[in-house]
């Protein structure tokens, strides 16, 4: 997929961390002409960036905390990301049922007025007031509410597309590569790295970005041997996936007695995603799991709003992530800012800058990347201005994925509509690559179940760094929710594939 890095190479920029911030920075840097190296200890989007609420949103509740700049920036980014990746970022209407004792109607109206007007809203519909007649999915005592627009996103695919964009402009992207240590010498950073197979190598770079998320402090203190002026507060957020709670495409934003909010969002057609929680986390971020208290919390708030009452046995899947937030507030975890902070320092001569990323949210990753490059501008002569707002992510060079579905079905009459739809909304215009040379379903290879063919598996391996069944089913396709048998079939195929490659004679 790309040339191996060698010790003789000197990059303009090295990035540690393959989540949304790291890959976003790599994409921004390469688009502006910088040679870039990125390493990630695990799979891309393996942790926090695949454990979000799958939203591109302004953050309605952040208005209560006075975070005007963050909300304005996030609101503006919604429409930018809809243009960059129309196959991943979709408009979504949210219904906010009104509970008078939690927030007054006038306060909600004011908040939604600001939400409608703070950002550059062009595509998204404005907010409105609703009245309920007791016939819908909500409890009968809820008689009114409000509706507004935000967006949903496939979070892990957004990470993958930024990594692909960086690679296609020359970046070297190396998942499953651990940065063992790094040090400054003669005005350069020297990174010492270890691949998954145990082999080791080094690269050098003029500047280093630490975008390791929950491990950012560990990178600073243990890997780099540095001190930090700031620290992280790790906050766990957990989600439940249950059978579809209601008809229709609308999502719900539910207020709780503790003044937090929880989303109930239609997910992958057949399911509802419920989350998130906020609790301080002090364990290993790689080993985070939903707690019994969090399960009770999420089920309780859902049951207080919806007629359909959920029990533990209704839970089909759960996932948890750790948010690496700037530790600037000792109050409740829910009140800690989601804004980002960039910490910059250099060696004694003002060379070899180190920039560490604290905090941030999925929605504002592109602006974080731009501000990272602006912070490093003094070390890069002639750095051009950013054009990422108008540059589509891979597969995003289309106007409407629904039109792409019809075009695919017109040209390939044998293609099932459900498969064309999933591919259009997952890969955008890159879906044509999955169909090249095929004249029938047999041309897509072995069917492993639930519309997953080996042609798609090979594409994910060759183009999107997938290696394991988990990579493919949970971070690339989300098909893991639909069929337990699929995981076993895919494991078998990947094992046969590996055995076949081991038996092939070495090329001369």
Helix share bin: 25-40%
User: Per the principal axes of the C-alpha atoms, what is the gross shape?
Assistant: globular
Q: What structural category do the secondary elements indicate? A: alpha+beta
- Point out poorly predicted stretches: 1-7
For the biggest sheet, the summary is: 10 strands, mixed
Assess the beta-strand content as a share of residues.
Answer: 15-25%
Count every beta strand, where a strand is a DSSP E run of 2 or more residues: 20
Q: Topology of this protein?
A:
Layout: E1 10-16, H1 20-31, E2 36-39, E3 55-56, H2 68-84, E4 90-97, H3 105-118, E5 128-131, E6 144-152, H4 155-168, E7 172-174, E8 177-185, E9 188-195, E10 200-210, H5 216-223, E11 232-243, E12 251-255, E13 261-267, E14 271-275, E15 279-280, H6 292-305, E16 317-326, E17 340-345, E18 354-359, H7 365-376, H8 401-411, H9 417-427, H10 431-435, E19 447-449, E20 452-453, H11 454-463, H12 469-476, H13 484-503
Parallel strand pairs: 1-2, 1-10, 2-7, 4-12, 10-18
Antiparallel strand pairs: 3-6, 4-6, 5-6, 8-9, 9-10, 11-14, 11-15, 11-16, 12-13, 13-14, 17-18, 19-20
Helix pairs in contact: 1-4, 1-7, 8-9
Key attributes of the depicted protein:
single chain; 508 residues; alpha+beta; 10-stranded mixed beta sheet; 13 helices; 31% helix
Description:
The structure is a single chain. With 508 residues, the chain is α+β, with helices and mostly antiparallel strands. The chain is 31% helix and 24% strand. The two termini are 20 Å apart.
In short:
The protein is of the alpha+beta class.
């Amino acid at each position: 997929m790309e040339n191996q890095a060698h010790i003789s190479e000197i990059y303009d920029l090295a990035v540690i961390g393959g989540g949304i911030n790291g890959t976003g920075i790599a994409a921004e840097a390469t688009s502006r002409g910088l040679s870039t190296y990125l390493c990630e200890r695990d799979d891309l989007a393996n942790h926090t960036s695949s454990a979000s609420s799958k939203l591109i949103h302004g953050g309605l509740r952040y208005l209560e905390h006075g975070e005007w700049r963050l909300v304005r920036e996030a609101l503006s980014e919604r429409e930018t990301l809809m243009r960059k990746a129309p196959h991943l970022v979709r408009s979504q209407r949210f219904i906010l049922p009104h509970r008078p004792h939690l927030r007054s109607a006038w306060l909600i109206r004011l908040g939604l007025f600001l939400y409608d007007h703070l950002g550059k809203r062009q595509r998204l519909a404005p907010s409105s007031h609703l009245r309920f007649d007791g016939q819908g999915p909500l409890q009968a005592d809820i008689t009114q509410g409000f509706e507004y627009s935000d967006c949903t996103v496939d979070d892990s695919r957004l990470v993958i597309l930024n990594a692909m964009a960086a690679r296609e402009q020359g970046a070297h992207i190396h998942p499953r590569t651990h940065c063992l240590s790094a040090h400054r010498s003669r005005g350069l950073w020297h990174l010492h790295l270890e691949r998954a197979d145990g082999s080791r190598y080094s690269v050098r770079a003029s500047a280093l970005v630490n975008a390791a998320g929950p491990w950012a402090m560990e990178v600073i203190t243990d890997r780099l041997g540095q001190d930090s002026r700031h620290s992280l507060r790790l906050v766990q957020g957990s989600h439940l996936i249950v059978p579809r709670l209601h008809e229709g495409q609308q999502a719900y934003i539910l207020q709780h007695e503790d003044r937090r909010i929880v989303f109930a969002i239609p997910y992958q057609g057949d399911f509802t995603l419920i989350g998130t929680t906020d609790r301080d986390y002090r364990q290993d971020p790689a080993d985070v799991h939903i707690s019994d208290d969090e399960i009770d919390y999420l089920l309780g708030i859902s049951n207080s709003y919806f007629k359909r009452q959920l029990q533990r046995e209704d839970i089909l899947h759960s996932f948890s992530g750790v948010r690496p937030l700037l530790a600037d507030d000792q109050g409740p975890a829910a009140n800690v800012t989601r804004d980002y902070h960039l910490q910059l320092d250099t060696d004694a001569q003002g060379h070899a800058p180190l920039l560490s990323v604290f905090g941030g949210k999925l929605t504002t990753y592109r602006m974080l990347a731009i501000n990272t490059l602006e912070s490093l501008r003094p070390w890069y002569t002639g750095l051009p201005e950013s054009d990422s707002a108008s540059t589509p992510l891979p597969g995003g060079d289309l106007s409407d994925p629904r039109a792409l579905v019809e075009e695919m079905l017109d040209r390939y009459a044998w293609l099932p509509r459900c498969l064309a739809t999933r591919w259009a909304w997952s890969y955008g215009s890159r879906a044509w690559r999955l169909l090249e040379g095929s004249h029938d379903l047999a041309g897509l290879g072995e069917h492993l179940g639930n519309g997953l063919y080996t042609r798609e598996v090979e594409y994910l391996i060759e183009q999107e760094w997938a290696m394991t069944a988990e990579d493919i089913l949970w971070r690339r396709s989300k098909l893991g929710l639909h069929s337990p048998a699929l995981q076993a079939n895919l494991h078998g195929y990947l094992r046969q594939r590996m055995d076949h490659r081991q038996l092939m004679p070495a090329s001369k």
